[in-house]
Input
Amino acid sequence: MSLIVQKYGGSSVANADRIKNVANRIVNTKKQGNQVVVIVSAMGDSTDDLIELAKQVSPNPPKREMDMLLSTGEQVSISLLAMAIQSMGEKVISLTGAQAGIKTNDFYSKAKIVDIDSNRLKEELDNGNILIVAGFQGINEKNDITTLGRGGSDTTAVALAAALNADSCEIYTDVDGVYSADPRLVKNVKKVNSISYAEMLTLASQGSKVLNPRCVELGQLYNVKIHVRSSFNLNEGTIVQEVDKLEKDRVITGIAHDYDVVKMTIFGIKDQPGIAKTIFKSLADNKVNVRLIAQSSGEFGVNNICFIIDKDSKQDAIETMEKTLIALDGKKIEALDDVACITVVGAGMITNPGVAADVFAVLGDNNINIEMISTSEISVAVVIESKDCERAANLLAQYFEIIDTEL
Amino acid sequence: MSLIVQKYGGSSVANADRIKNVANRIVNTKKQGNQVVVIVSAMGDSTDDLIELAKQVSPNPPKREMDMLLSTGEQVSISLLAMAIQSMGEKVISLTGAQAGIKTNDFYSKAKIVDIDSNRLKEELDNGNILIVAGFQGINEKNDITTLGRGGSDTTAVALAAALNADSCEIYTDVDGVYSADPRLVKNVKKVNSISYAEMLTLASQGSKVLNPRCVELGQLYNVKIHVRSSFNLNEGTIVQEVDKLEKDRVITGIAHDYDVVKMTIFGIKDQPGIAKTIFKSLADNKVNVRLIAQSSGEFGVNNICFIIDKDSKQDAIETMEKTLIALDGKKIEALDDVACITVVGAGMITNPGVAADVFAVLGDNNINIEMISTSEISVAVVIESKDCERAANLLAQYFEIIDTEL
Output
C-alpha cells in the first residue's frame, strides 16, 4: 500500500462541480489501494473576496487578524471536499492546519513550518480515512492561526509528504507540468519531464510561477519526489527529484523570466571591506527581499553595486537605501522599473563551460543590451530592458533547443 | 473596573458599515473604563450561503464536516470586527471557540458546552485587550470543531459571562428587548423591563424567539444577569434576572405563541401504568422533541394522550407513533397541523390563583375552541386552531393588561 499526497490549488476546487471532479480523482486513487492525504487551497477567488472585506473595515489590518480571516478559505474547501468524498461512500475526515499538527513560527502572513506533529494524521489514516488537510495554514506556540504566504499550500503538501514519508507528492495545477519557459512568452516550448531540485529552485526563484521556491527547497531537504501535473487531465506531468536521476546530457533545462523586478544601483561608495554588509543587512532588516546582486570592480577607489528586488518592495528599498547612502557617504541611488530579469537554468552547465558566453552572444548579436549579469553554477541571469524580454526569451529558447521543433 | 460581556447577532455585523458601528459601541464601552468581552455571530446570511454550498456537493453532509464548514462564518466576523476595533486605536484580539477554551461534548451541530478553560481569556484581558470571541462554536475532546445549534451565540455569551464572573451580559439584537407578546401579532404590546429566568425560559420554550431557552437556563444556573437590547439604538432593554428582584404584583409577564407546532393524539390505549413511558421514550429515542403533554382521565379503561411537537419533527413522530400504536394495541393516531400554541406566562400566577380560569373564560367567551390544555406553576398553555391565534393573543393581552393603553 502506497501513501500518496495530493495537493489541489484554488482553481481545481473553484465551484461545486470542480470539487466533485477532484473528489472523484481522490476516490479513484484510494480505490487503487493507496492511502491518500490531500491538501487543498481556498476555493477560486475566495481569498481575494476576504481581503476585499478586510479593506472595507480597516486601512491596515493587523497580520494576526488577516491570518485568522484568510485561514477560513481553506477551512471551507476542506469541509466541502470531505462532504463530496463522503457522499461517494468513502471514509474521509477534514483537518485544519492546527488539527493536522502543522506548527509554525509566529511570522503572521508568511509563517514557516517548524514542526509537524503527525500523530493524529497517522491515527486517522490507520482508521482507513482519506485525509483532507487545509493548506497554507498552521498554528504557532500561542495556539494562534498563521498562514504560510504565497505558495503556502504547495509547501504544506511537501512538508506533510516528508513528515509521513509518503511515496509521492502530486501537485495538481491548471497546467500540464513545468515548461522550459513560460508558454505565454515563448512559442512551442517543451514540457520538462524531469528536473532537479536545484534547477527547479532557480527557476522558481527567478519568476517561474508553477512551484513556490520554499516548497522545492523543502522537497530537496527531505528528498520528496514532487510530481507537478494538471487536475484537468490524466497526463504525466513533471517530476522534481534528485539530479543523478536526470538526463545527463541536457545543458539547459529552462528559462525563467520576471517583469516584476526593480534594478537598484547605489553609486559612488568606497571600495572597502564591510560596505556590502552594511547595504544588504539594512535591506534585510527592512524585509526587502534581494534577488540578485552584482558588483564589478571599481575605479578610483569607488564602487557601484546593483541588485534586483521585487517590485512591491520598491518603496521600502528606496527609503532604506536613502539612509544607507548618507551613512556610507555615497553619491546617489537609482531605481529602474522598466527592466526584466531572464535566467537560463541548467544543471548541465556545471560540466558545459561557455553557457554564459553563449547567452551573452545570443543577446549581443541581436542588439539586446545587458544591464546587469549574475551567475551561479547552474544559472546565468541577465537584466535587460523589459521591452526586449519576450524577444530575448524566444531567441535563447531557440538557441538552447528547448522548444519543440516538431510542433 | 467592570467586566462587560456583549453579544452581537448576525444582523448587527451584516456588512462593513454595521461592523464599524458595532466596533464603535465596543470601543465606547471600553473607554468608559470597562473590560469588554464580545461574542459575535456570523455575518448576516453567510451561514445560509455556506449551507447552500454544502447542499451542492452532498445530499446529506456529515455533521462533523458541516460544523467545520459553518464555524468559518464566525471566524470571518471576529477577525473583521477585531480589525475595525484595532483601526480605532484600541488593543484587541479575536479568538475562535477553541482558542477561547470553549469545550463541548461531541454532538456535532448541537453540541453542549461542558467546560470553559478561561486561562487565555484572562491572560488577554490582563494584557489590556478587548476580546472578540466566535459564538456558536467550541471544540470537543478530539480537538474537533463543534457548533452549538440554534441560539448558540447567546449561549456562548452567557457561558463566558458565567466563567469570567462578568458584571453584566448584554445580548444585542434587532429589537428593543423582550416584549410581553410578539409585536407583529399583538398591537401596542408593552416591552418588559425585567423578567425572571423561569418566565423567560417558558416564553423562550414556547415560541418567543428573542432568547434561546438554553442560554436562559445557563443564566439561571450561574445567576448571570442578561440584558437584552437593540444594537441600533441606546435604549435600555430587558433584564432577565432572579425573581425576587421583580415587581411582585405583576401577574402576567408575557404571552408566547407558536404556529410551528403539530398536535398529535394517540387514541384508545389502555389505562395502565407504563403506557406514557413507552410512548415518550420511543419519541425521545427518535430525537422528537415533545413540548407539551396532556392526558385526561379515560373512560371504559382506555385513554387518549395528546402532545405537541415541533413541525419539523412531524414525519419522525408519525413513523415512531405508528410502531408504538401497534406495540400498545391502540386504536389510531392523529396529527393536526392547523393548530397554534398560546402560552400565558407569569411568575405571579403562583400567588394569584384563577389565572387559568381567566384564560379559558376569555377564549370561551369569544367562541375560541380549546383543543388541549397544559399548565405549570407559572404558565397556562392552550392549543387552539391556528386561524384563532392572532385574535386570542390580542384578547388575552387586553385582558391581562400587557398592552400599552397610552399608545
